[in-house]
UniProtKB/TrEMBL annotation, chains A, B:
Pfam families hit by this protein: CinA (PF02464), CinA_KH (PF18146), MoCF_biosynth (PF00994)
Name used for this protein in its record: CinA-like protein
CDD domains: cinA
Family: Belongs to the CinA family.
Listed HAMAP family: CinA_B
Superkingdom assignment: Bacteria
Organism of provenance: Carboxylicivirga linearis
Domain MoaB/Mog: start-end pairs: 4-171
Coiled coil: none
Amino acid sequence: MNLEIITIGNELLIGQVVDTNSAWMGQQLNKEGFDIVRITSVQDTVDAIKASLDEALSRVDIVLMTGGLGPTKDDITKQTLADYFDSKLVFNQDVYDNVCTLLKGRVKNINELNRGQALVPDKCTVINNPVGTAPVMWFEKDGKVVVSMPGVPGEMKHAVNNEIIPRLKERYETQHIIHKTVLIFNIPEAVLAEQLSSWEETIPGYISLAYLPSPGKIRLRLTAKTLDDSKAHKDIENLVKSLYPIVGDNIFAEEDKPVHQLLGEMLKKEGKTIATAESCTGGYIGHLLTSIPGSSVYFRGGIIAYENEIKERLLGVCKNDLLKYGAVSQPVVEQMALGAKKVLGTDYSIATSGIAGPDGGSEEKPVGTVWIAIAGDFGVISQKYQFGKMRERNIHRSADTGMVMLFQQLTNSLR
Amino acid sequence: MNLEIITIGNELLIGQVVDTNSAWMGQQLNKEGFDIVRITSVQDTVDAIKASLDEALSRVDIVLMTGGLGPTKDDITKQTLADYFDSKLVFNQDVYDNVCTLLKGRVKNINELNRGQALVPDKCTVINNPVGTAPVMWFEKDGKVVVSMPGVPGEMKHAVNNEIIPRLKERYETQHIIHKTVLIFNIPEAVLAEQLSSWEETIPGYISLAYLPSPGKIRLRLTAKTLDDSKAHKDIENLVKSLYPIVGDNIFAEEDKPVHQLLGEMLKKEGKTIATAESCTGGYIGHLLTSIPGSSVYFRGGIIAYENEIKERLLGVCKNDLLKYGAVSQPVVEQMALGAKKVLGTDYSIATSGIAGPDGGSEEKPVGTVWIAIAGDFGVISQKYQFGKMRERNIHRSADTGMVMLFQQLTNSLR
């Protein structure tokens, strides 16, 4: 079942806001067997909204829209949809009650703009939005469905999960879509593709392959559209198995989860704890680890040692080594890892020290030079990397690589 | 001058990758006077790519495309564009040399797939891509321009900044677009809009207003399209000035920059230093502060004290207070802030302790309860917040709010 997404808002087109709604919807709907065939972002104008809707409805039966439903004058989606569906705006008591409940305690009086949110087109099904003041609207015409949702991600997600997907599944038959993603590290895309060229020939026609490269990592995705789940699962399983003799050393996981989640799940399962000692990553490893609910079971804490004196005083790095080798060096990063493990009292630790850039590089240690160490019952292991010139990318790769180093070490020791 | 963006890749439509390229391009091009009127994301199929190109070219004169230029079989953009422009693929020595330079030391031999990247349509201008192996291609037909760039953000950004914008500016006359964004905190959108209703009436017709709400914050954006810069700047300046008597207490800044950047710039200017003591934010404040180049001038480091024992031992929080009031309490967060300032030897500090969720809440302290403290020459100031149920949002709002608290305190004390 094909569908399209339309996101509305000038802020998307001038780049003041990144459209994360579409990707999230794509993920959720795809899992449920719906194919998103196009995503369109348009300006807050009557013409742009109507034209994009005309075009989408000429191609598919389901259109999901987000944005432009706020109480202010620049938001015109509701009025535009009312016109589009030959409908007029009428007062809806349920929506009004919801607005009142949500604003209780936050504002003195419900004002005209808030009251205006309770006006809805008379030719749509209004769907309850308990997490926001804008209504969710479900239109039907000539057997096709158009749903308009608020652009605020939390409100859109609540509507999609609790209302839209259940209603769509009740109405439409869907094919099964099975994805399997293998994470592969430290191999350039073209090299990997060459090594896999014979393997690619063995992929059955109903399964498609995609390479999704990002810095240091390639996600290899197999997708089957099928009515026979068990055959597809089996075929995919065999394909993945046959990857190991070819590139097994570079395979990191068979799940499309970020490394901080995989590492966290492993630590939780083994009942182990972890600490961080972060210089160039500045707290990013701590942030990623704690972005996962329940991480307090394995993450005890960390020391962000940006300044050398902090490395010395809080992590016990030897002052002479700092002077002799510099902060971005093997002795220092190893002492940082051992220090964090000891000071924070954990089973494992990850430490980073590098030159994220854009300044601070030298001929000997150019921007992108990063030392990473992990410590644990296996002792301390460290490795030097040369990432590149871009600060954000260096921070991300340093964090990911530190966690990959520990994850692989633990995977090997548990084998 | 209107243009459209087309981003290509199944990964965008199934949500495995968020399209951040479009927003970035929108920002850069808009600054240069180009209006992005539509963004379209399509699948890696010949039909989808050609159809989206037909449609875009029926509306505008410039189309920028990203994605689908990798060396693997699932990437078909180059061949599709060659067909579309009645062109054939020919070997290009410059592109080949660039591929060799980039892969030197990373691979043993240049393989067939890499060699294939040097095949380019004969009816396009090939633009050098010194940061990646895929070529950038500039097509012209019937006076219209289509540019195809790699989807890897670093490569696309390099091409847009160094090649595409200069070439477009040379070719097209552009209107001036002036944006001014005012950041407003802690006021619901509808309340703000009501308070500003008379003010809105005073906005000249050639200036448009938009409300961009996000949790806890509203960005108020004024946009002028003009040929008379000085008049527009003056009109906008007066409009912003006249905001202060109405909502001055809630205005946080007149620049569309994230708070960590504004805070960092202020600390740098004043020659002051900062440290963090993070519990519920888990390193996110440290990460945000250090995401800015040159932050080592003011950021010395932080302690991520996820576990209570770490709060006690490393930050000097009193054990009795932890037992008596709990970790999420005023005495504890104030001691964390004072401890971080002392232990890390800085002028200022920010501390957070809260229940990010989804678990860990109680009737007295539900999920979303967060205590935040700032410390400095003004002593210690703390505040309790009730953010909501969503973990990610709670972490982001806690980090932002802590930095806003310090920024406002410093702004006031410097007045």
